[in-house]
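Final report, Chapter 2: Outcomes

The project's central promise was a pipeline that accepts a single protein chain and returns its three-dimensional structure in a standardized token representation, suitable for archiving and comparison. That pipeline is now operational. To close this chapter, we reproduce one record exactly as it appears in the project archive, with the input sequence first and the structure output second.
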Amino acid sequence: MKRAATGLWCALATIGCSHPEEAYFPLKASQEWSYRVMSGLVERVETVSVLRPRSCFGVQGWEIGGVLGISVLAWKDHILWAQELAGTSFDPPLPLLLGEAAGKKTWSGIVSSGGKSMVATATLDQAPSSFTLAGRKILAKKVIVTLVMPRRTVTTESVYGESFGLLSQRQQENGVVTRSLAYVAGP
């Protein structure tokens, strides 16, 4: 399974900001974000763009893409769902962000990548937070998603900022940090 598959969890998607929770993932066609991505000893800036509308979990979502791959996400029932993250697909879609400030969600399903599929489970734990960006304090949500597969556990800690989207992320595989990213530019 590709490491990029779970990294850049979603390099971002929703259906605009018709609901208050979507302010934590404000999207529109052609929107872009740039992130400083650190993976091992390599550090680079990557741009992620909203590419086109795409069906996800029975509703209109968005296809998001960049060098790390394509992600497909959508808001449904006040939850941001990922059908695909950088080449890894989830059936049913994986929850990434809850509409409420705090909460927990569990998931079980099939994870597919590189022609291989496996049964997996996940837990999402979310709490209110804040984030300082360019000296300004921003309302935020801290989300920890733990995806458990045979012989592999991936934990991703993400911070989503109101009116900005994904601000920071740190990914661990079996307890070892494999990737992190930090917001550089965007909405």
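Archive annotation: The chain is about 0% helix and 70% strand.
This record, like all others produced under the grant, will remain available to the consortium after the project formally closes.
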